Every structure is written in structure tokens, then in C-alpha cells.
Amino acid sequence: MKAERLLGGGLLFCDARFHDLNAVPDGDRWRHEHRRDGRLVGVLEGVVTDGVLLSGHSAPFGGPDLVRDDPPIEDLLDLVDGALAAARADGLTGVHVRSRPPVYGPAEPVLEYVLLNRGFTVGHCDVNQHVDLAPLHAGRDPLSLFKRKRPYVRAALERPHELVEVTGGEDLTTLHRILDTNRAAHGRPPGLPRDYLERVRALFPDRVWLLLLRQEGQAVAAAVVYRVLDDVDLLVAWGDAEHTLERSPMDLLAHLLVLRSLRAGVRLFDLGPSSEKDGTPNVGLIAFKRSVGAAAGTRKVLVASLR
Q: Residue 111: which of 65, 53, 171 has the closest Cα?
């Protein structure tokens, strides 16, 4: 029913098929739908492990899905109070919410306030960076995002290049190898397995894209992009490796990814966190994302005990 359509069509990471993909047993899944005067306000969904609900299980984030993009605060209070009451009634001992960045919409900062007001605390905080595409939709030149790097991007655009969608086969093997080689070069553990990338793309062909950048006929960089909401793209992974170019292809890749989201009508391109697992800022990564036009924000994990 259109009136009960969740904001953005529903968060990708709260889709039951996403949990199927991650082999979450049905008995571990938990969902609370909150209604006010018969009207659906929103949904809090997640996975229960050892009595603790995690909204955003096996995902960058979760959090409540809302019907309205800017609901009154009383709706958010009712949703959170109702979800906490339901969790206690089900015998849960805690709730962890991997929150979306506040820039995702006008409800997010208010929702964060409501959670903190109801006893949640900040368990973890990352630096998160994003590109606001609204000025580009209004006519601003996408190359203006790059400032000092603009000449290098222009030069790369004038030479043979292509950004292609990958569905499987040798191209997917190449894409996965590039991403894992890049992670290893930066001292990071392997990322998403190749078979997982193939399965998630097949399951969500209209919301997940595996992208391979070629320059001069050579595969030089790769990216994984999820459309987490109808108008928000999330960069899940990217990197370059195995090339002999004089300059890194990452500036060109960033530009092409922005153009791709812009042409799809997306309003926000989320480049993801720029901090380590413990929240320590990755200064070099922050600087690079700033150099391609990204602004900084936060992404928090909010936790509450129900004991």
C-alpha cells in the first residue's frame, strides 16, 4: 500500500533477502512494526544474538525504516518506546543500532536525539564522508569537486577508458583480485568473498553494482556500490592495483562513480567510513576523499541495556 511504503523503499540491509544471503536463521530475526492511530510509523528490524538485538547485522548500518522522511518527533518517540517495550517483552537484554549517517535525511539527527534521550549511549563512532549531489543536479560542474586534481581528471577523461558493470566470470575474478590486492597493500584483511559478490549482485541486480575501470584497455581499479535507499548510493569497496599507470586511477574512478549516481537521480553518494575498526581516524583516507569533493560527517553505533 503506497501510504505504508517505507522511506526510500526500505533499507537494503533490512530486506529479508539480505538476511537470507547471510544465512541468518529465521528464529534469530526480530522485527517491530509501530503504528500510531492505525498508521504505520516505521519498522525496527535486526538479528538477535545472545539476547542482544543488532540492527545492521552483517551490514554497515541498520536503524529504523520510516514511512515519512521528516516525521514529527512524537512519531519517533512512539516508535522507539514501542520497539524497546517489545524487545523487553521478548526477553531481550540489549539493543545495538548501527545508525545511518545523519546526512541521510532530516529524521536521522532527531532519531539519534530520541535514542540518546531514551538511554542509548555512543558505543562507537566513525568519521564518514559523502558527496552531496544536489548542487550537481542544480547545474554545478562535477569536475568542480576536484579543485587541484581537476587537470589530472580532465587528462584521464581524454584517454581511452571505460567503467563497466561486472556480473561474473573472469571480469569478476579480476575485480575481486584488485580489491583484495589493494586491501593487502594497506595491511587490511580480505574483503567480501568473490562468491558473495556474485550472489549479492544476482539477488539485487537493481541495487548492487560491481564496477571495473579500464584505462588503455587495462583493468586498473574496481568498486562495489549498493543503492541502500532509492536516492542514496553507498560505496562498499573500491581500490586500484596491478596497473602501470603514471598516476593512480582513483581520481578518475571517483569522478565516474559520481557521474553514474548523478545520472541515476541519486541525491547522496556515501563514500563510507574513513576510520579504523577502533574509530581512529585514517588521516590519509580522509584527505583523499576530501580531495575528490567529499564532506565529513559521522556514523555511530548506539547501544542500550534492557536489564
A: 65
DSSP result, 178-247: HHHHHHHHTT----S-HHHHHHHHHH-TTTEEEEEEEETTEEEEEEEEEEEETTEEEEEEEEE-S---SS
**What pLDDT digit, counting tens, does each position of 116-175 carry?**
999 999 999 999 999 999 999 999 999 999 989 999 999 999 999 999 999 999 999 999
Distance CA 78, CA 57 (A): 23
Q: How far apart are CA 120 and CA 81, in angstroms?
A: 12
Q: How many CB atoms lie within 10 A of CB 35?
A: 13
Q: What angle do CA 96, 209, 263 make, to 5 degrees?
A: 105
Question: pLDDT by residue (tens digit) across 6-23?
Answer: 765 678 888 889 989 999
Burial grade of 70 (CB within 10 A; 0-12, 13-18, 19 or more): exposed
pLDDT bracket for residue 222 (50, 70, 90)? very high
What CA–CA distance (Å, rounded) separates 173 from 190? 14
Q: In angstroms, what CA-CA distances link 259 with 193, 218, 244, 263?
A: 27, 21, 25, 6
